[in-house]
Amino acid sequence: MTDGWNWSRPPTSSAHPAPGEPQQSSPWWSGGQADPWRDPYAPSAVLLPPPPPGAGPPLESPPNPDEPRRPLGPILMICLVTALLAGGVGGTLGFLFAVKGGYAESGRTQLGATGQSVPESAQRPPESTSGVVDRVQPSVVTVRVSGAIGSGFVVSTDGYVITNDHVVEGGDDTLSVSFHDGSTATAKLIGRDPESDIAVIKVAKEGLIPVALGNSDEIAVGDPVLAFGSPLALVNTVTQGIVSALDRTIQAGEESGTRRYYAAIQTDAAVNQGNSGGPLVDGAGRVIGVNSVIRSVGGTTAEAGNIGLAFAIPINQAKRIAEDIIDTGKARRTVIGAEVMTGESAAGARLRSVEPAGPAAAAGLKAGDVITKLDGHPLDDGISLIAMVRKYAPGSVVAVEYRRGGKITSASVTLAADTN
Fold this sequence. Notes:
about 15% helix; alpha+beta; 6-stranded antiparallel β-barrel; Pdz3 Domain; Thrombin, subunit H; about 30% strand; peptidase activity; 21 strands; membrane
């Protein structure tokens, strides 16, 4: 094959007849007479093969070059309308997706993940901390006495509330309380026991929900706890911690006033002024103690603040005293029937004197004996003995271990109620 510039006529063959012979039409060329590159001895034309027998007419006739062309106006109009419709639909869908994604608010930047909405009323499991708070909070009250603020908790449907004696001390018979929902009510003082630091008031309101009371004898160090109340006048406050010690013997109160003794539950939950009288609650939402005292490095009461050491009266003791107050107007005080020495380090509680007909004398104890353990709990001094004895109800039988001279002896003592 060549490019045509050096073309020469091919030799005569059967494909190229001699002059005078009839010309054969070629199937490869049409209009060949005017083609300058055509072999003048090989005229050509496009020949279509004949249709097979029985076939119909061709599907489409070849275009006629002389036929007038279709105007482009309607076609352009159809294209324009289609483009406008497509743009409108695309813009609408884009706007809807932008609104759903949070990006169509007047061009403002939206932060955070999309498609992760939280239900309006997320339900917490009853056993979760939030679930416990939801159950207990309606039963906790803020007690207001002569401008001071303390806490308390409802223990009966007819309105009895347990609080601390030092919360109501100095007030009159009429008090006011407020609830977590902001409602308020008047309350009346039913009775108080200064030495145990427990008082009972009664709220004039219907539809009250009492707390569930636990068993303070069954708790253990490390158990999780929640402290409810109004510390520093911050009502509806809840703090969390653990039981950090048990039977921590406490002597509280002013030296010139009432002295209070109890074997306390120690906790590291944050407790401050205003928490007094509020409930200490276990992980199941049961009250196990009454928040009463904090330990602080401050020099005065006004300077006192939480340092991770707070103490609660065991609920078994508080419940017993509250029932005495409600039923008789006065609490029974549990005694061992002996006077102890204080202010000395005797590795135990030394008995100064023993009542002749008291529980200690009946168990064989004498003046000068040193009680080293009560119900298995080691005693450091006389204050420890007083606090531990008052933990038990009158009539309880407890084992004591005491030292007389150099000999260690054991005995059982039936505790009694003070007759004074």
